[in-house]
Amino acid sequence: MTEPAYGIIINESYAGSLPVQSGDFSVIGLLLPADDADPTTFPLNTPVQFNSSDPTYLAKAGTGDFAKALASINNQLAAWQSAANIVAVLVTRGVDLPTTIANLVGSQANFTGLYAFLKAGALTGFIPRLIGSPGYTGGVAAGVTAPVVSAPGENYTSPPTIIFTPAGAQAHALLNSSGGVGEIVMDAPGAYAAGVTPVGALSGGGGTGAAMTFTMVNEANPLCAALPAVLQSLLATAYVGASGDGVIANTLAWRQMLSSDRLNPADAWVIPGSGNGYTDGVAEALGAQVAVDFQHAGIPGWSISGQQIQGIGGLKTYYSFSLTDGATQGQELLAEQVSVIEPGAIGSDTAIAASGYVWAGVWNASTDPRAWFTNKRRMKDYVNLALVKAIRLRLGVDNVTPHAVQAVLNDMVNLGSWLLSKQISIGFSVSFVPSQNSPSQLQQGQFVVAFANEVPAPITQVTVNSSDDPDALTVELATIIAQSGTIAPQYLTA
């Protein structure tokens, strides 16, 4: 017998709903070429976690894009905020930009490049949920498509080799029964910079005279194409930057290739404070987002729009902008969900601010208006993760009883009430869903509940109906009459 016959028995109880728990949504994932970073501190294709102001790591970051991104992030930190939490994945810089981008994308099978972030939680204990690859997500490449045999040639004993110059695209030829080239099959479209059209030639095979034609088609940036699936796995979002060539049509062509509520497009190239080259504003956006999260106790429910961007010497391209005129370049980009940085102007009443450089934009690249606010996407992930962390403590511990089901509902009510108290929800509802539950499901330990929550959208547009108020004249007349009636008559006296 373990209980005393004469003594005191204490049973601890943790009754009641579970406290709100979620994850850290302000961990930045930086994906960049290693350049001259120390390979011992930052081994290739391996997630490394550190604080952005840690002098030990900063001294090992080198002088390339990685070091510049860290400086840009640190420039945006809020008052009393000492550092951002970084998980870095560095890769080998390629011989050209397409090769570098291919290294950044990496291999899903080998968990290299972008896919290395998927093992960050296991290796570092931190999951990056703000991802960026500053300088490598812009522009639209072109690829070879629709090859056509314009002349079959003759006397081929084997299929000729197809050579594209510059290299990149790959194709192979098939012979017809007459010894000519009957078909050309594309194996890889390649990735060519805008304006570059390769020359395709057929060589060898013993014959002569074969020729081909083909067309070029725009392709999405490979990193932008690969990001959504990884972001979905991490419950993360990414800021992606346009090419920065200053041509709005090119930015919009790039934007048209994006379709994900986890990608936040921007055309916001800046001159760093050092005056050395240009950066695409992605690192600045990541730092600003961490600062805004910090100002709200880590809750990722607020936008960076309206935030001053610090530590820059100017903009690469100054897009015209007015808060009251939609027919300006900046407004044109914002209308297509592309964020910008705009300068303040003391002498302009309709500028974005009186001074400084200000981020403008609250949208991601979703095609669904209900899902295209960046803060809503991040907050939905935050809430869903909080639900997972609460309910998982019930799994296998409680049995399916009315009391246990109510306990799960109470956990959800607790979360909703907490969101309301933080003013990051404008309303929620919790329910057990009768139509989706059955006795056989309960028998198997399964049931369906619902949690509906509405995150407030950021203010993007205020319409003021300005007009005269004739009633004010009536009130004014009455006031004058009343005032004049209080004036007492005065008379001449001796």
Average pLDDT, all residues: 91
Task: Please count the beta strands (DSSP E, at least 2 residues each).
Answer: 18
The share of residues in extended strands comes to 15-25%
Domains (count): 3
**What is the gyration radius calculated from CA atoms?**
31 Å
Question: Helical content, roughly?
Answer: 25-40%
Strand order of the largest sheet: 2-3-1-4-11-12
Total of helices? 12
Which residues sit in consecutive blocks of at least 5 with pLDDT less than 50?
Answer: none
Which structural class matches the secondary elements?
Answer: alpha/beta
Amino- and carboxy-terminal Cα gap: 116 Å
Shape: globular
Order of helices and strands: EEHHEHHEEEEEEEHEHEEHEHEEHHEHEH
Largest sheet: 6 strands, mixed
Mind explaining what this structure looks like?
By secondary structure, this protein is an alpha/beta fold. The chain has three domains: 28-138 and 222-360; 141-219, no CATH class; 394-453, no CATH class. 27% of the residues lie in helices and 20% in strands. The protein contains twelve helices and 18 strands. The strands form seven sheets. Strands 2-3-1-4-11-12 form a six-stranded mixed sheet. It has a two-stranded antiparallel sheet with strand order 5-10. It has a two-stranded antiparallel sheet with strand order 6-9. Strand 7 and strand 8 form a beta hairpin. The longest helix is centred in the C-terminal third of the chain and has 20 residues, at 402-421.
